[in-house]
Structures are given as C-alpha cells and as structure tokens.
Amino acid sequence: MSLSPSTGRTRAHWEATADALLAAVEPYATDDKALYHLPGGHESWSGRLSDGLEGYARTLLLAAFRRDETVLERYADGLAAGVSGVWPRIEDRGQPLVEAASVALALRLTRPVLWDRLPDAVRQRAAAWLGDALDAEPWPCNWELFPVTVGGFLQETGYEPEASRKAVDRGLARIEDWYVGDGWYTDGDGRKFDHYNGWAMHLYPVLHVWLAGDDRLLELYGGRLSRHLEDYARLFGGDGAPMRQGRSLTYRFATAAPLWLGALTGHTPLAPGVTRRLASGALSYFLERGAVDANGLLTLGWHGPDPSVLQGYSGPASPYWASKGFLGLLLPADHPVWTAPEEPAPAEREDAVTALAAPNWLLQSTRSDGVVRLHNHGSEDVRYDPYYTRLAYSTATAPSTSPPYDNSVIVGGDPRRTDIVPLGAGDGWAASRHSVGDRVRVTSVVLAEGAVEVRVHEVAGAPPGTEVRVTGWAPADGLRAELLPAVGLSGDGEPAGVTSAGPTLFAAVARLTAEPGPAPLADLVTVRPSGDGQVDVRFGGGRSVRVRPAGECPVTDLGG
C-alpha cells in the first residue's frame, strides 16, 4: 500500500522542497548575507531595508526547520552583520518587530548548531537587537505574540530575564481578551477570524510553552489547539486547497503549520495520516498551480502572482511566512505522522454541514467534488475586503474585486456589509444581521444540505422602491455556480425592489458544484413564503424548516 495514496508526497519531498526554496533565495542575499532583496516589484510600506530583513528572517525560519548546518552557517554570517548596524532597529509597531520573532524562534530551535557557536560579542549584539522587542509596542492583534516569542528565547539564554519574563506574561495575558472559545481567537478586537488563528494565535504560544517545558500552560494552549483542529481540518478542500478567506493569503502553505503543531506537541484530534494528508495536500495544491516561479521563488499571490490578495505590508519576501508550513520537519523521520499511510481528509469522507459557533460560520462540504464552502455570519474586517466580509467563501473560488460583487446583498447599489451581528449557527443553518450604510439593516439566514443553499434576507430601513440585488458565487473554471430566485426576486437578472416602508423579504437558492450533470435545483428544494415575514423550506431529503429572519430563533425545524 502506498504511503501517500492521495498526494504522493513523503518527508523526502518536503525536504527537497525546502532545499529548493533555500537555494533559490541565496543569489539575492547581500554580500554580508544580512539582507535578502528578492525581486517582485511590490515594495511594502515599510521600505526596502525592512523588506530585506524580512527576506533574511523568514527564510532563516525555513532553514531552522530544515536544520541543514551548511545553510545555517550562511545565516550565522548574516546575523553577525545584521546586528552590527545593518538591520533597522525594532521600534513601536514597526515591521522589524515581526521579523524579530522569526529570528528568535529560529535561534531557539537551532541553538546548539547556530547560537551556541557564535562568538560571544555577536551573541551580545544579537541579544541587544532582539531586546528592543521586549518593550516595543505591538499592534493590538497577533503582534502581541512577537515579544512573547523573542522573550522566550532571551529568557532561555539568560539575557534580561526579568524584562523577558514580563514580555512573555504581558503578551500571553493580552490574547486572553481575544479568546472566544472552541479553539478560536479573534485577531484583535472585534470579530476578525481567519488563518491567523492557526498560524499565529495558536502557533506562537503553543511553541513557546512546549519549548519551555511548561506542562501547565501546554495543557491550556495545547487543549485549545486540539479543539481548533477539529474545525480546522474541515477548512481544506479535497484537492488540498485551504479556505480562500481572510488576509495574508500569499502565505499559502503556512496553513499547514497548526496541523504539524498539533502532532509535534501531542495536542491534536487528527490521526497522523490525516495530518500529513492535509499538510501535503496544501503543499501540492500550491506547487502545482504556479506558486513558485521559474527562478524557484515564491510569488506574491495565491496560485501565481495576484495583486488582489496583497496588502500594504506585503513585500517581495512576505510569501516566505509559508516557511511555517515546514514545521513538520521538526518531527523525526520515524514519527507516525511521516510513517502512517495517508487517510482521507474530512472533505473526502462524506457530505457535511458543520456549524462553528465561535466564529458563527457554517461549513458545507461535498464529497463528490471536494468543495468546501464557508458561510460567513460572524467575521468582519472591512480593511481587508473582499476577503473578509462576504456572505460566503470557498476552497475553489475567489471573491470578485469589482461589480457584480459575489455573495452579497446589494441595497440601492451599495454592496457594503458592516457591523455584523451574529445571530447563531445550528443544525444546517447560520444567521446574522449587518448594516448597509447608516439606515439599512439586513438580516440573513443560510440553510445548507448537500451542495444546495437557501439564502433568506430581510431588508429593513430602506425607502420603498430601493433596488435590491442578491448575488451568488463568482464564476470559476470547472465549477457550476447557480442562483435561482425564490421569494421577492426576479428571474431575469434585474434587481428587485423594496416594496413598502416595512421590512421586505427576499430568498434565493444557490449552488456551487463541480459535479457533472447535477440534478436540477428545483428537484432538490422548494421555498415558499408563509406570511408574517416567514419562509418555508423543504429539502429533497425530507427535511422541512421555517425561516423567520426577524424572529428570536431564526430557524424552526418542522420535521422531515
């Protein structure tokens, strides 16, 4: 039986990929090896010097996971030069604080072969440079964990132990404000749920306490990680694609980091073969779709180059946060995660509709095509739209960046969705309320079964005659995207309208599928208004529910 029947990838493939990525960046190092000025044509708002440090720090992290002593010698030379005046200082809310965390973590992981072999004078200068991170003010989000990571390393080496301890304690206390339960953190105030939950909010504290041998805190943070992985494993498509939602998507297979972290620390509900299948699937997904260019460099984008997924902080070396995806190389070759046969991912096993209460999401996956859809009724950060506040995302589609905006309720030409208030998620449904401008409130409920979705929206506060357009999935190659009017909507693509001064109800049936020749939607679900702001829905499988968006309980099960 093949060890990797789904992806064909083994530990040797991961090692070869790491080696190739490290070899590809070497020509772009400065003569003193302290900076890596990668091409890419998208300088970050932090400037060229900071971008060069980013190139060093993020590829050093990959070298640390790979543990190739020859490569680490190159980075030792760069460290000596960098802390002798080449690198920018770590200051309040500056990008060097981010990169200091990667440097510190890499030094901690490779201490016997890198840090301990450095001349004492270099160690003192490096500790002093890193030490500025202990008091630097982070942005109030996952940045709070960068001083934790630096402090953990400096505490271990005996540098400024009291200041290091305080930095660790302060950062760990801060993230408690953002823990919402079931393994989910919001990335700062509000409801900012995305991949940072795994590759930052879990990664840094769990690694710190694991390396520190703090069993008490590992039980706490490791338990949260394990709970998160129950949900997280469902966010990968059958083709290996991670969910295409949230910011910093150019970090790509950094999405594998929390999977490996669970196996590394022994805090995971996933079988070893499932862990490797998901992680290797993500790696394969991107490598097979243009993530690496002809020079062997990671590009700024999702598949290949794609400006739509970038942010102002994205520089040429930013994609190398993908290095976190190689965390699994810390596991020995004889660990079950490398020796057990791959097992099917959740999206490959069965059709599933899963409510996630903490982020107020509904996940909908179909075994026949491996597509996973995320119905978003609880995550919002308009700074990073269109990847944050749309009604739905998937592993197989990208949100549209220009009209007609996908997965939206557009009222009077306004597609905005702000002030999202979650109204709950339950058996096959999720609901929320949001604002469109200053006056209009839209209450939305989604029901899901198989690949079928019923979307019900109540629009309140809009003057009579206001146009309302409900949109579905953006088109994508190899996929069938359907949207059929059900209540209050026309069938010719023209917008419907608000009919009175009171709330107006709209409903549509949607489907996103790669299944060839699917049954007609009309055979799979019926949707009828039932008066008093309610809609009755009956699925082909027999399930029947009543939806009343304005009700205290938006969905009532009528039996089947």
Provide tags for this entry.
560 residues; alpha+beta; six-stranded antiparallel β-sheet; four-stranded antiparallel β-sheet; 13 helices; 19% strand; elongated
In short:
The protein has 13 helices and 19 strands.
Low-confidence stretches: none
Question: Mean pLDDT, rounded to whole units?
Answer: 96
Radius of gyration over C-alpha positions, nearest whole angstrom:
25 Å
Spatial order of the strands in the main sheet? 8-9-10-11-15-13
* Overall number of strands: 19
What's the N-to-C terminus distance?
A: 43 Å
- How would you classify the helix and strand content by structural class? alpha+beta
Tell me the fraction of residues in β-strands, as a range: 15-25%
Write a structural description.
Strands 8-9-10-11-15-13 form a 6-stranded antiparallel beta sheet, with no helix packed on it. The chain has a 4-stranded antiparallel beta sheet with strand order 3-4-5-6, with no helix packed on it. It is elongated, with a radius of gyration of 25 Å. Helix 6 packs parallel to helix 8. The chain has 560 residues and is α+β, with helices and mostly antiparallel strands. The mean pLDDT is 96. A hairpin with a 2-residue loop joins strand 8 and strand 9 (429-436). Helices cover 31% and strands 19% of the residues.
Give the helix/strand layout.
Layout: H1 11-25, H2 48-66, H3 69-86, H4 95-109, H5 120-131, H6 145-157, H7 161-176, E1 179-181, E2 184-185, H8 196-212, H9 215-232, H10 257-265, H11 272-287, H12 336-339, H13 346-349, E3 352-356, E4 361-365, E5 372-376, E6 392-394, E7 409-411, E8 418-426, E9 429-436, E10 440-449, E11 452-460, E12 467-470, E13 480-487, E14 496-497, E15 504-513, E16 525-531, E17 534-539, E18 544-547, E19 555-559
Antiparallel strand pairs: 1-2, 3-4, 4-5, 5-6, 7-12, 8-9, 9-10, 10-11, 11-15, 12-14, 13-15, 16-17, 17-18, 18-19
Helix pairs in contact: 1-2, 2-3, 2-4, 3-5, 4-6, 6-7, 6-8, 8-9, 8-10, 9-10, 10-11
